[in-house]
Design goal:
CATH superfamily of the largest domain in chain A: Dihydrodipicolinate Reductase, domain 2
Mean pLDDT of chain A: 97
Order of helices and strands of chain A: EHEHEHEHEHHEHEHEHEHEEHEEEH
Oligomer: homotetramer
Number of domains of chain A: 2
Strand order of the largest sheet of chain A: 3-2-1-4-5-7-6
Largest sheet of chain A: 7 strands, parallel
Strand content of chain A: 15-25%
CATH topology of the largest domain in chain A: Dihydrodipicolinate Reductase, domain 2
Low-confidence stretches of chain A: none
Shape of chain A: globular
Structural class of chain A: alpha/beta
Radius of gyration of chain A: 20 Å
Chain lengths: ~350, ~350, ~350, ~350
């Protein structure tokens, strides 16, 4: 199966490469990027020397039609919504890692992303690619909107509690902590080593564009209009996201009972691992892997459920989940090419 | 004025030294430690070469009576409660950086610290040393219980909102993020570089011994029994604490109005700085200084007040505040010896 | 093929697990450790949940004889030399990751390791497992002494220059920089996060036990008795070693000529990559992979050859090279199970 | 005494501010910068809130003549050489932190900096501001060329050995390791957190512009033309430089004898500290301070002297030494305003 990567020279693109060069059923046929066409990917990423010595080229629809079955878009916000429609029409399967196709309601995109939305037919076609939630729909999909990094950790952490109606949806507070790779490779004051190192920094409190994406799914699961409190923090590490989530319990419930419900909910999901009671996941325990690890406690003093979910933002939060979705679309074992053990220490 | 430091070879002790060697009215006359008496502090801390080449000795009450006016205890939990009573009786002024004298209700200490509490007369005598809150009481104090690091950031962030009755006390959620120095110098698996680096780790969710300390003060301010949700996370940096706090607003209120109330509340407090609307503090902006920086937003969508407070846990969260209290006790300018500019970058 | 890991709960052991769980021809049948027998490896390493849920047991020669073909020793210095003799006699193939069998001259071991050496028959039998150097010998080996981390980077960097007699062996200066994982999992003051972070620390200058290991091989290649200057530094990162090497050129030579000689020397060695002139490797470009990347320059002003070699100390410097040797011993493709792309960023 | 800072919004400038706000004899009257004139320094550096709330303005010679006694230039290469001549003529005292006035031979500047040199009268006037070396000359200076960060550590490490003719100057190899703040605040791929973190990176081997600066002084001390081998590496930390230096001993000499010579050489230099035999300095032991710590060993096996020198590149390697020079110029105690204890941990 032949694939192409648009935005190949960003962190999402290069992580797709890391996994896909070892995927048994896939051949990388195209690395596309507007900014660096013509150069070898190795010039920008010397770690790929001897692994994938391929030139980056300008995206061209005729070439794609001829040579590519599936196109990954690992492009910044606002790019894929312009390009994708013609590729849909050309019958190319697409997995979009950007936020352009995740919000079914175009006006939400307009409000949060300050940009015109993708055309309605594209939004209609797009399946939200949280694999564990939408596996059945993804099997038939030709266009997948791969989830954001924060929403992936948040939703995998909240869905079982919402499904089992354990918590009051509108009481949810999500405190997100992210490594710096989430900000991409573009240089800026906020990614400068000297200022990020030895520093925790709050940003976009209550204003992050992942908020409507989370609300869309929790409202669907909770079967009501849910508004969440969501805040984000940069922590001094490269990879990893932790979301700590707080919600009021509808009824008092035993911690071990909640853990059992979660274990049961995810019993067929290889990439979701539930921690034993009294222990908590750490981001390093999933680094470089597609796992989402979840720890749970009940704070009896305040009648709150507290959930901690961790992922590697570049893997389960981006490239890994995209490949998981590719595997599902093609009927391959979901783990194909993705069984990297976390890099510890 | 002659001071002594008990627990001189821990991080709290060595930070007291950092400031006190430059304090114009203070002379360090004693470094005491059980574990390393007889050696020079420079052997354990070569950064003090040429600055304070002093031997560490065993604590001895007769020596103290003769030579010391004020004794700082920078000892682990459970030590100072045993030692302090005799020094109180001997008329020595004491500033205790540990948690042993912070909880007025001994049974709370017993429950959270799993240890017998200090004798009642000591608890009665101890003034809780959150300088900005208790400045008047500290002026007359002979025994100060210096606040914990998390409570310092949390309380400075919450007190104005509680004083102005803006928020529902029982809805408070505090998400704490701390650098590793908070765990002290003792080696353990949880301070091992290879496992802390590139890692965010949740710990003691809903079970941290700083919870009753926070509740004691917010209940007093809020004039009702308040229970808080409090969780803690280790982030890969040495110094710094950030507490992100969420609470339900009693009435809708404008963000800039809240900021004004905070600015006004702290207008005479040099070490508390309120950020402008739309900006957020970062821990590095207070590193190596005694400041507590606070950012505030109103999340109108969920009717929550969100407060972010940062301190250097070793300074305002320990040694710096202890010296601030010393200054208050002696009627000196509160900033004496403490005007270090944050180390940035 | 059935393997066992002795010292499974150290960083070398857990890295062997990371690779071997995905090795197509290998089955992990035994995790042994003296200190933690009886527990599941997952209790100590939660990142292995769902990947290898296996108990750690006490090493027992009868079990090994029955169930194991190859035994990896990832034990601290001084352990394998005591245990290995009986396993050799029992016909078990052994790959020893410790320093116990690397020095052919037992008296050198005695001098540098301050311990009695392994018995002569074991030292005679042991093949030094620098795969690129000794591939032919390893094919027939039943006992492999896997190289140290610093020697691996150093020797791969120096051997071509010595083979081509470009440099004066006795002028060699090696400046080594290592991440902290090289110090193992044992807690100590020198691995404490708060003191390692934001710190570069020199240690064991001219006294590191890897010196005789390096000298043994460079003397053999250079065909004369060579003494090297070797110093080591801890840098604040978890994985990675860089060795910067300086040597006097015997004759002036063009940089591009040297690079060609290196490229040619390693043309059949997948895991050694030579950088283009004017560019230098960085440790992150090999993190999590078995590559050794080498950059070369000629400093014409001082007539010196400068070589920079980087490896991941836990992979090519330990577990990865051990598996590479296993592959060679069994006639499998050397890359089997080892083709992980470096984790970048 | 009234001072101004040109390039106030770079790291050198902001570090000058950190110290000068607490300097008893100095008043900051001007913050100048081309790129951000008109804004408050606090907008770019919130850590200065309440400490120095001053606007940044465009540099204007008439204002300077009227209001300023001493002007610090903390500007990028190539700026001060254009601006300084007119300020010299106007009788303003100048301390230049850039490399523009360090090389007495203009043609060397041209070759290494690829730029036209400063006018000869300025180069003639400029005193090289390595305080410990040129203290007497600095007392009379009106123009000081403050040393580079690498040269400061290197020269303080080498000078006593050269003075005592212990080593062969042309055998010197200097292996430099620097934190990232040395690259300044400008954003670039080489300062991106995600790529610097967990990474050691070699750069500019044998080509760094600090080479002629080092050679100028060691040749002067050694009284012969000396060429040095000098290489540089970025290590993942914000502040700190370590230079490890290797040189052939002319005659065998005892380690403790060398240490005594060094102690004696620096006995009146408060900011240079010599470590005891068998111990080595670490960069963190000088962080945030103006110290240069030096460790020494004799490698008897190879007859080499090995010297390790560490500084905080932003303090002793830039702003701190500049203020030390100011103190010397004005006859104040050299330590005035500079007695910050290193920030440890």
């Amino acid at each position: 199966m032949k694939i192409g990567i648009v935005g190949a020279n960003g962190y999402g693109g290069v992580e797709l490469i890391r996994y896909l060069v070892n995927h048994p059923y896939v051949e990388i046929k195209l690395l596309a990027s507007h900014s660096s066409n013509g150069n070898s990917i190795v010039e920008q990423y010397p770690h790929l020397q001897g692994i994938l010595e391929m030139n980056i080229s300008e995206l061209n629809i005729e070439d794609v039609k001829e040579n590519i079955d599936v196109l990954f878009f690992a492009t910044p916000s606002g790019v894929s919504k312009e390009l994708i429609p013609q590729y849909i029409e050309a019958g190319i399967k697409i997995i979009d890692l950007s936020g352009d196709l995740r919000l079914q309601d175009g006006s939400l995109y307009e409000g949060w992303y300050k940009n015109t939305p993708a055309p309605p037919f594209a939004l209609d076609k797009a399946i939200y690619g949280l694999t564990e939630l939408n596996r059945e729909l993804i099997k038939e999909a030709t266009l997948v909107a791969n989830p954001g990094c924060y929403p992936t950790a948040t939703l995998l952490g909240l869905i079982p509690a919402l499904q089992h109606k354990l918590i009051d949806g509108n009481s949810i507070v999500i405190d997100g902590k992210s490594g710096i790779s989430g900000a991409g490779r573009k240089t800026s004051a906020t990614t400068h080593y000297s200022e990020i190192n030895e520093n925790v920094k709050a940003y976009k409190l209550g204003k992050h564009q992942h908020i409507p994406e989370i609300e869309q799914i929790v409202s669907q699961i909770g079967n009501e209009n849910i508004t969440v409190t969501f805040s984000t923090h940069l922590v001094p590490m490269t990879r990893g996201i932790m979301c700590t989530m707080y919600a009021n319990l509808k009824e008092p419930i035993n911690e071990s009972k909640v853990i059992s419900l979660y274990e049961d909910y995810y019993k067929d999901d290889y990439f979701v691992r539930i921690r034993k009671g009294g222990t908590w996941p750490a981001t390093k325990e999933v680094t470089g892997s597609n796992f989402c690890d979840i720890g749970i406690t009940v704070d009896e003093r305040t009648n709150k459920l507290i959930i901690v979910a961790v992922i590697d933002n570049v893997v389960k939060g981006a490239a890994g989940q995209a490949i998981q979705n590719l595997n599902v679309m093609y009927g391959w074992d979901e783990k194909t090419g993705l069984q990297t053990t976390p890099l510890f220490p």
